Amino acid sequence: MDRLRQAISAGGQDYWLRDARAPATLIPGEAPGPVDGQGLVRFDLRIEQGRIAALAPLGTATEGPSLDGGQVWPGPVDGHTHLDKGHIWPRHANETGSFHGALTACATDRGGWTDADIEARFEWSLRAAHAHGTVAIRTHLESYAPRDPASWRVFRRLRDRWAGRIALQASSIAPLDRFAGEDGGLLADTVADSGGVLGMVTRLAGGVHDRLPDEFQPLLDHFFSLAEARGLELDLHVDESGESGARALIEIARTAVRRGFKNRIQCGHCCSLSIQPEEFARATIEACAEAGLSIIVLPMCNMYLQDRVPGRTPRWRGVTLVHELRAAGVPVSVASDNTRDPFYAYGDMDMVEVYREATRILQLDHPVGDWPRAAAATPAAAMGLQDKGWLKPGTAADLLLFRARGMTELLSRPQADRVVLRNGKVLDAEPPDYRDLDAVLGTGPG
């Protein structure tokens, strides 16, 4: 791959990449060649002035670096992360690995946050995502203190600083009942003033995702009204448990339809859907399709966190009904979620890892079908970024180049030797060193 990097770097602004493969589902319109049994098409790709100029039939180009049949993907899109609380594990680990343990550890650590602390950890994660090739991220920001919105201050600075490298969006996150009263209005104003998305978790403060409380629907309607008054989109943490009483998803969909809500709604997690009775699950999926919801799945975090009981092997994967949702026409994405915090001890802001592990956990294969979009074009659409996540002429040549040819080659290795192109140029960036965080965290190895 070093030879490929050198050849591209020497090629100037305009050049061909010969003999590339890509999932045909990532190419809108007609594929530039025959599609094989793995859903891959082989072609030549033209780059001019930092943009994709053409996808041409294999053999069109007579010069330029060859990928030797290796794959090319558009820069991935990470539609659900938590950058302001990333990497706090060394300070406050989740000793039980449980959801309640995560809530407790995060709340303890959050009490000591400063702008400088948030910014250092937040930017470290952006550096990692950038080095791995991610082009857009939506992060949920801890919004428990609407009168001192530190995470939102940091977000605005970093969004401006990283403009042109990563398209950065933000959504609020706080329990639903925190949007009641004056503080809820202040928080919604902060989101609107920051160009953000209004988000919450479908539980009350101090609780977990279980049976819906009696006040759930009035609080939900009030939450919708805050978004409607400000023209905001919604991004919600929903039913993040294995409790059959966690049935917020269907109520969100029905509320959106009843109110005629026009803006985009993304719902994350939705774990309990997979343990509901079949009839109720079908009704929920139908409601999601009618409401036009998008679902985003966090397979690594949910498999790590859900159904964790000391001394007992987990009985389920903690994830939602992705295949059934997708079959009903509901857009489904995958994303990183938490990284090295009490909700997930691991992760590196690498969407190639996320897609690889999602394929294994969720069985997104045999056939692969259009699941490659789940890490690219589908989350981009949910974020309103219509030109990202596709291989199409006219879009920026922000690409990932792999030596791997087929899908098992791609998904069997971490692809740490990938070549990342930004505006057609080889990106000279490496994932940051964890030691860069030692002074901020006040700790050693995590």
From TrEMBL:
> InterPro entries from the entry?
Amidohydro_3, Metal-dep_hydrolase_composite, Metal_Hydrolase, Metallo-hydrolase_Enzymes
Q: Which CDD domains match?
A: Bact_CD (cd01293)
Q: Name one GO molecular function term.
A: isoguanine deaminase activity
Q: Which Pfam families match?
A: Amidohydro_3
Which UniProt keywords are listed? Hydrolase
Q: Which GO terms describe its biological process?
A: cytosine catabolic process
Q: Which PANTHER family match?
A: CYTOSINE DEAMINASE
What's this protein's name?
A: Cytosine deaminase
Question: What organism is the protein native to?
Answer: Dankookia rubra
